[in-house]
Amino acid sequence: MARIIQKKICMLGDFAVGKTSLVRRFVEGRFDDRYLSTIGVKVSRRRVLLPGGQEVHLLIWDLAGSEEFVDVQQNYLLGAAGALLVCDLTRQSTLESLERYARQLDSITPGVPLLILGNKKDLTEARQVSGGNLETMAQRLRTTWFTTSAKTGENVEQAFSDLTARIFAEWGSHHGRR
Ligand code: G3D
Ligand code: MG
């Protein structure tokens, strides 16, 4: 029987950008969530199949509540295979914050694949962050971006699947995010 591979993915981003909603949407309640109360982290699990048919379990780490990120930085980021850096398209400051999360991630797990998600794309009237803004940040962090909506589900599956592909594309190859 083939061994099941597990990969840890971290959700990063400012308060209320939609991290928990995105995880909930992606996991769709098909698996039990586990709450690590001691470090204020919730781990959700979803099974995915790679193109070759290999089964992979994604363990998605999400900060519960409004804990100060600095307090959990080490435990939270240790062993991450990838990360989703989430901003709220209706709040410009949440995009600027992503550089700091990327730096913290890089200090613990250098070169780990990451993606930028501009969430709440359904709130078109209130939108402040343009595609150009996202592209600028993506180039700075040497990655790419998606706009998502945890509310409608738009692009949520695609974002997680793109990150998974990046995690496995790098397997056995040189470090670097693409
Ligand atoms: P966080 O985990 O990053 O802190 P949450 O963020 O997932 O708790 O979401 C914060 C608020 O934003 C929630 O509203 C949630 O419903 C809303 N939200 C998350 N994603 C989207 C989205 O894509 N579109 C819209 N319109 N709202 C979204 P409440 O009111 O429950 O605080
Ligand atoms: Mg949350």
Quick recap:
This protein is 33% helix and 25% strand.
Largest sheet: 7 strands, mixed
Structural class label: alpha/beta
- CATH architect. name: 3-Layer(aba) Sandwich
Bound molecules: guanosine-3'-monophosphate-5'-diphosphate, magnesium ion
Give me some keywords for this one.
globular; alpha/beta; single chain; binds guanosine-3'-monophosphate-5'-diphosphate; 6 helices; binds magnesium ion; 7-stranded mixed β-sheet; 178 residues; 7 strands; Rossmann fold
Structural notes for this entry:
The chain has one domain: Rossmann fold, CATH 3.40.50. It has a seven-stranded mixed sheet with strand order 2-3-4-1-5-6-7, with helices on both faces. Mean pLDDT is 87; it is low at 174-178. The chain has 178 residues and is an alpha/beta fold. The protein has helices at residues 19-27, 69-77, 92-96, 98-108, 131-140, 156-169; strands spanning 5-12, 34-36, 41-49, 55-63, 82-88, 114-119, 145-147. The chain starts with a strand and ends in a 9-residue tail after the last helix. The protein contains six helices and seven strands, in the order βαβββαβααβαβα. Magnesium ion is lined by residues 19-20, 62.
Give me the secondary-structure topology.
Blueprint: E1 5-12, H1 19-27, E2 34-36, E3 41-49, E4 55-63, H2 69-77, E5 82-88, H3 92-96, H4 98-108, E6 114-119, H5 131-140, E7 145-147, H6 156-169
Parallel strand pairs: 1-4, 1-5, 5-6, 6-7
Antiparallel strand pairs: 2-3, 3-4
This protein binds guanosine-3'-monophosphate-5'-diphosphate and magnesium ion.
Magnesium ion binds next to α1.
